[in-house]
Each structure stands twice: as structure tokens, then as C-alpha cells.
């Protein structure tokens, strides 16, 4: 595979490389790591990519790889949001499969354009909603689908960080593009981590959000995009939901958790204990499930005890994507998020931001 983005100092680029290698034996062999040729070559060297396969931009990447007998099969897109669409469209034109970081694009209109382009092309497309790759998240999804907690009544999902509590964007590149409308799109925290929470709520509960009442605001002085986002949710089966997202929550590192309450039980999962799923039965008894627990409904894809880092879920997602490329099309849009989930997430961002700017009651996600 090739990587677009993931330049010097990138965290997520290495996660893509290691996850692809661990989960599916995929080698990173090419990339456009930076618009600066020297920095692209330097980043390529850190990934073990030869100089002749380090390209200045994505157009040069696809042209150069198409001319090789051993050219790439897929590309991972790990750039700021505004570059997702042009890179993906170039990949579709080249007939290369795409694993993209979330959100799918910078705007809903762009996501719809991408969806249309994918329908016309031959490229497969997946989104790295990493938390959907955790074995115990998949276990929760399977148990809800099997009716083990009865009919879903309420979903509570929380994702809180504190790293943007101060105006870090003044001297930090990672913070700068995430708080810049021209690079992030219409959402700040809602686009960066809110889409993870939104996707997880639908993924585990098996229900789709029908409408929301949102409150997304920038609470750090001078910040143009939201750094705190809250929403009340109504699901299509009548269930209620609460989504709480913040990047100005002092002391929080990566506080992601989800609770799904049914009429016959409940399930709780948290990132800090990713290898654990807590199930509350209708009689009030509590069961702690781990990857080696008897009676698991979903198979454990990797060795138990590895579930608290990000490499494992990326490995699972790449394993699924490799299977899809190999012909198992049942995975995309089911356990593996695809463009339809990307469009829904972009619609969530725009609706929650619009709901906050123009408070007029509940907003549909149609």
C-alpha cells in the first residue's frame, strides 16, 4: 500500500503502517508524505520506503505507481480533512482501493460527491473508525443484535479530551489544522472526535439516529470552531440518546465510553479498559466479559490482552479490508465502516453545528 500524509512526526501514519502489517501482512511501499519533496523523502525513510517511491503529491504517486509492475493495490489517506476528497478522487481514477481516516471529507457536499464517484468506479473504500475494530466493541454489537439486552431504550456515549483546553493551535501543527475551518471543515471537536462517538452509538446499538438537538460551541476565546459538543439523540426505534464530546475537558486524555440500555439488560464499554465488556442482566447480575470468556458471539481476531492500544483495532480493520479486496464484500458497511457511514457522519457534523447556530428545535438526519 501507499500512504498519503503521515509526514515527519505523524502518530497516525505509523499506526496505519503497523496495523496493516499486523492484520493483513500489507507492506507500506510508497507514499506522498509531505508536499515538501525533501520532507516527503525523509518521512519515507522513517517508514522504510525507498527514495524512488516517495512522491511530491498524490497525482505523482498514482502516476508513478501505475507505471510499475509492482505498483500499489491500496492507499491509506492520513491527511487533514480538506485533502481527503482530492486524494480519494485521484485514487478512484487510478483504480486503487482506499482506507481513509475519518471524517470522510471536510463537508457533507464533498462526502456525497465521493459517494457518487465510488459508485461509478471500481475502488473499494473503508473508513478507519478505529473503535469499531476493538473485539469487545464488536462483542457488544453482536450481543445487542442477538437481543441479549432486549429492545434498546437509551444510548449514552461520551468522548472527552483535554488537550485543547488552551489555545494550543498558536504553536502546534496538529492543533492548528483541527481548529482551522479551511482545513477541518465546519466542525472542530465534532469532526475530530464527535464522529467517533456518533459512529460508535449507531454501530453498537444497531439503531440509526433519526434526529438530534445539538449544542456545539468554541469555548476557548478566539477559536472559530467548536471545541465542545453535546447532543440529545432520538433513534429510529424510538430510543433516546445522549452524546457528550469535548476537547477542553481538563485532565481527560481519551475518555471514550458507551452505555447501551435495553428493556432486559445493559452493556458498558470504555476505552481505558478496552479488553473488558460489562453486561448487566435483567435480574441485576453483572457479568464481566473478556476476549477469552466462554460463549462470545464474535470471534476474537487477535491474541487476547492486546486490546488497549490503537494498533489492534487498526489491524482488525485492515484484516477486514484485505478480506473485502479478496472478494468478501459482506464486511464493508457491516463490521467495516464504508462511505455510507462516512456520509452519515458528515451529516451529523453539519446538523449538530447548524442546530447550535440556529436553535429551532430538533433537527432530522435525513
From TrEMBL:
Residues annotated as domain Gfo/Idh/MocA-like oxidoreductase N-terminal: 22-121
Domain GFO/IDH/MocA-like oxidoreductase: 137-267
GO MF entry, a single one: nucleotide binding
Name used for this protein in its record: Gfo/Idh/MocA family oxidoreductase
Pfam families: GFO_IDH_MocA, GFO_IDH_MocA_C3
Entry-linked InterPro entries: Gfo/Idh/MocA-like_OxRdtase_N, Gfo/Idh/MocA_oxidoreduct, GFO_IDH_MocA-like_dom, NAD(P)-bd_dom_sf
Taxonomic source organism: Sphingomonas glacialis
